Amino acid sequence: MSEERDGNAGRNGVHLTDEQRIDWLRLIRSENVGPRTFRALVNHYGGARPALEALPSLARRGGASAKLKIFSREQAEREVAAAQKLGAAFVALGEPDYPSRLQMIDDAPPLIAVRGCVAALALPIIAIVGSRNASGAGIKFTQRIARELGEAGFAVVSGLARGIDAAAHRASLDAGTIAVLAGGQDRIYPPEHSDLLEAILRAGAAVSEMPFGWEPRGRDFPRRNRLISGLSLGVIIVEAAKRSGSLITARFAVEQGREVFAVPGSPLDPRAEGTNDLIKQGATPVTETADIISVLQPIVEGKELPAREPEAAPAGSESIDEAEPAPDERARIVALLGPAPLLIDDLVRMSGSSPGVVRMVLLELEIAGRLERHGGGLVSLA
């Protein structure tokens, strides 16, 4: 990254100034800007501030039907103040304290709010998730493997939910456990786990990408689950019914290249249907902690991939002026899109436009709220 771009790159990665951190917070909190869009905007414009300035124009060109809601500086300053009051810090993608494995996923959050012992995020991390309506046997087994993994030098990450999640956190408090929150750092769910979170913060950490004051909703839990798997070397599913949210975490783990472990259960117990199916699909069966360590130890001892910094536009790539689409070109690209997901590479080929022009049109549509990204380079009209 050049000095003109956000952050000052050095031997330890990116370091944002206070002003840049405010700009990053404003950009990621603005309407229709998610992690992938954030990165695309910063790559195109060289920083969060020029990207913020470009948002209204992008939304108009993308056909927005209403004025875009851009997070104000005052709102960002209030959120930073709320974080400081609670003892939380905003850590940016690429900074030394940002978890190295998390920043390797495609939709890594540009900023995470972190409370507690940040050093826990640097440990090798393993996720344990499972049923909220857990059996006594499931809780007992969870406690055993969480405790033994902590003793082996792993930090356990989970979602602070009732049942298996809570058991995993409680059994690994001394070793350092990490809670990923579905809401803001000041909106703990479920509320009765506030005391558990305070105990976690003594040696572990709490992580959230959501705004302060954000009450978690149903669709926020899958977003949280991708961070649980993204932080970890692998995910252990202890109990999961056929349509359990824990299976969403397992799916994210597969997409992110993480190991998936599953604890087998009785075919007569609905809480074991999901885990037994995972084993049929190739997940590593777990009956003791050694099953997990034997798979993960070579990864821990092997050479880790270097942590990626937020991407800058490669040398020689099209500038934003060169990527400006002509009106007929924009219409042609939009006409090729529909509700069915389409590969961006196919869109480039079929439109006959340059990759830079296609990316710009997709950015315009996304900021206007008219585009949906599906991962794997697939996009569709919203």
Please name the defining characteristics of this protein.
9-stranded mixed β-sheet, Arc Repressor Mutant, subunit A, 3-stranded antiparallel β-sheet, about 375 residues, 3 domains, alpha/beta, 14 helices
Q: Can you give a write-up of this model?
A:
The protein has 382 residues and is α/β, with parallel strands linked by helices. It folds into 3 domains: 66 residues, no CATH class; 200 residues, Rossmann fold (3-Layer(aba) Sandwich); 55 residues, Winged helix-like DNA-binding domain superfamily/Winged helix DNA-binding domain (Arc Repressor Mutant, subunit A), CATH 1.10.10. Helices cover 41% and strands 13% of the residues. The chain has 14 helices and 12 strands. The strands form 2 sheets. The protein has a 9-stranded mixed sheet with strand order 1-2-6-5-4-3-7-8-9, with helices on both faces. Strands 10-12-11 form a 3-stranded antiparallel sheet. Strand 3, helix 5 and strand 4 form a beta-alpha-beta unit. Helix 1 runs parallel beside helix 3, helix 2 crosses helix 3 and helix 12 packs across helix 13. It is globular, with a radius of gyration of 22 Å. The two termini are 33 Å apart.
Helix content: 40-55%
Provide the residue-averaged pLDDT.
90
Count of individual beta strands: 12
For the largest beta-sheet, the strand count, sense and barrel status come to: 9 strands, mixed
The CATH architecture of the largest domain: 3-Layer(aba) Sandwich
According to CATH, what is the class of the largest domain? Answer: Alpha Beta
Q: How are the strands of the largest sheet arranged?
A: 1-2-6-5-4-3-7-8-9
Provide the succession of SSEs: HHHHEEEHEHEHEHEHEHEHHEHHEE
Q: At the third CATH level, what is the topology name of the largest domain?
A: Rossmann fold
